[in-house]
Amino acid sequence: MSTGHEEETVPAIGTIFFSSTYDEALALTHEARSYLAGPGQEAVQELSSDQSFGYATESLRMTTRLTEAMSWLFFQRAVQAGEITAEEAQANDCHLQHADVCLPESERDISNLPEGFVSLLTRSEHLYRRISRLDKMAIHAYERARS
Prior knowledge:
Blueprint: H1 13-37, H2 39-44, H3 49-80, H4 99-102, H5 115-146
Helix pairs in contact: 1-3, 1-5, 3-5
């Protein structure tokens, strides 16, 4: 029998953190797609050929970062939902890939690229780095739990 005062369930801290990271990644992915399909197409027309090459390179790098981040988050969501086991989530495909592309070793000059694009590049790199740290933490936690 209901009293009209249902008890609220408080989500676990990890769930809140995961949800906000997932929401951030999804919003950034949508923002990047909108930029590249709209203002980015206009902005690239005003760039020199060298700058256009840099824009193309960095847009591919950003797309790879965001795809990798979303893929990792989908696998984590599947673990939380019980769709795959923690052991299954240790497969290489479930971890971040292509760090050599997503996080170049050398500094690159992106100052001559459009401001909105540079903002997307910077935010996607920060997101990827954060998820990379989380991925490493998850691997270590799984290894510690098994030993």
